[in-house]
Please model this.
Amino acid sequence: MKEPATYEQQIEILRKNGCVIKDNDYCLDVLSRINYYRLSAYLLPFKTSGGKYKAGTNIVSIYKLYEYDRKLRNLIFYAIEEIEVYLRSQFSYYHAHKYGADGYLNAGNYNDRHLHADFTMRINEEINKNRKLPFVRHHIIKYNGEFPIWVVMELFTFGMLSYFYADLFTPDQKQLARNIYKTTSKNLISWLRCCTILRNMCAHSGRLYYSVFSSIPAGIPQLDVSSERRLFGAVMAMRELYPKIDKWNTEILTSISALNEQYMDVINLNHIGFPVNWEALLQK
Model:
């Protein structure tokens, strides 16, 4: 186990590895607010094979890169929230009208991959976690803890929505994919998985810049191998799922464009998989 380093020692480590620090007080303030370990991740694109940093790497630019990433996370999280609310509405409406208000509790309404005990356990965990919310407390008191799907799905995380859809019968998957997005169930499963990963990274303040994603979005021919596992691939999946075309183009996309323009002096679009024509590709 490493011994903890003081802020002053951390500054010297950065300097020793080639990071330019002209103002110790500035750097100390940054380290005291962010944590050396978190900040050092933004230095990864600038490391040489010998472990030092490339010439010109400086703490001011690294902090600006961190700020870009933080603002981008907030923007993406806002967009995914709208997708999440939309999918809760669409999935619960379809399932309720086909299988009934409590059909989600019947293991026979899912495919063979479905782990019903785990699924119901996760639902109960969310109910217990949120039992003080007015609508949850209302159903516990008045309805003896019985929740129709259109109510309980308000407690589903994005990951639970993704698993719920993936565990439906194939005809249900196909109909929902066709009705909501005019796509295939294979594509929708893939996009949901990509956005689950992206959403969790944003929710837990994970680094988006220079990250490699574990899932590749299916059915998006505009993606090439240099983009599919970078942030751009995940954002393209988010674009496919976003419910409002006009709002995506005039609000989400323009906000991403403005943010990229603001930090163009420190970001490298290749590091997040954004190709030269990224704005045209993201247009819905």
The CA atoms of residues 127 and 136 lie 7 Å apart. DSSP finds 13 helices and no strands in the chain. Residues 67-282 form one domain.
